[in-house]
Amino acid sequence: MLQYTMKRLFISLLTLFFIATATFFLMNLVPGGPFTDEKELPDQIQDSLNEKYGLDKPVHIRFIKYIANLLKGDMGVSVRNGRNISDILWNGFKTSCIIGAIAILIALASGLFWGCISAINKDKPADKIIVFFISIVVSLPNFLTGMLILYVFCIKLEILNVWQANTINYFLPALCLSIYPSAYITKLTRSGLIDVLNKDYMRTIKAKGAGKLYAVMVHGLKNAIIPVISYLGPLSANVLTGSIVVESIFSTGGMGTLFVSSINTRDYPLIMGTTLFFAFLIIMMNFICDIICKFIDPRIKLT
């Protein structure tokens, strides 16, 4: 177990380094810079700003310096407002984290529930209805789902007001973010349980007099849930960092907004910060899920 964990950790750190390298050099290959769109600035002032933020040095020198500072925990400052990148990311992440955590809980609870119901009632009317609605849900884009939620809860029913000044309604964007992963988890749970229910050991458990629901929840779900746990890695990272479309619809702000803003303004330190933050979350979530899967099923090996 320790050897497996160390190998996965090494691969994770190596992947993060490659992402940082690719992002830094590709970002600097794009013509222009953070101050080239400031047409009112004289060339002398632009040169002074480039010198202040180290943009006048060769790319490889800047990269070595950036990695050295990053290893010390220094992500630099924004070239647009001079704020510390760590503070900017933390402020954006707090909002996205709350919304993402609620979305994951909704998706996991509903997905496992409907997946179990569908598998237990395979080829019955309940199963067909669930599969039908899943097929519809997975085909709906986020922006359409978000507008439907706004129309139902804010306009038609008038029970929530997402546009209230200085107030963020976390439930609606979380509900919007949870719909697709909920349907996907339902599909994973259903297919996993159907496969498990046909195993010999499940037939033996039923033959000993165990009820179908007991056999599924206690013995079947343990093995069927491994694909769901594997999916929780990228799901957690994607949802926790927020959705650009959902954040725009519900005006919540967060990591998605920061990412778009950093690209539009050519804010190099912020582009690197948001990219590495996204990459770190995805890699670490996958790493944690791999360790959990290894703990549940020791037969899993690193490929």
Account of the protein in words:
- This protein is mainly alpha-helical.
- It is built from 13 helices and no strands.
- α4 (85-120) runs antiparallel to α5, α6 crosses α7 and α7 packs antiparallel against α10 (226-240).
- The two termini are 15 Å apart.
Radius of gyration: 24 Å
Principal-axes shape call: flat
Helix content: over 70%
Enumerate how many helices there are, as a single number: 13
Q: β content, as a range? A: under 5%
List the helices and strands and how they pair.
Elements: H1 2-29, H2 43-52, H3 59-71, H4 85-120, H5 125-137, H6 142-156, H7 171-197, H8 200-207, H9 212-224, H10 226-240, H11 244-250, H12 255-264, H13 268-296
Task: Please describe the structure with a list of short key phrases separated by commas or semicolons.
303 residues, flat, mainly alpha, single chain
Question: Summary?
Answer:
This protein has 303 residues and is mostly helical.
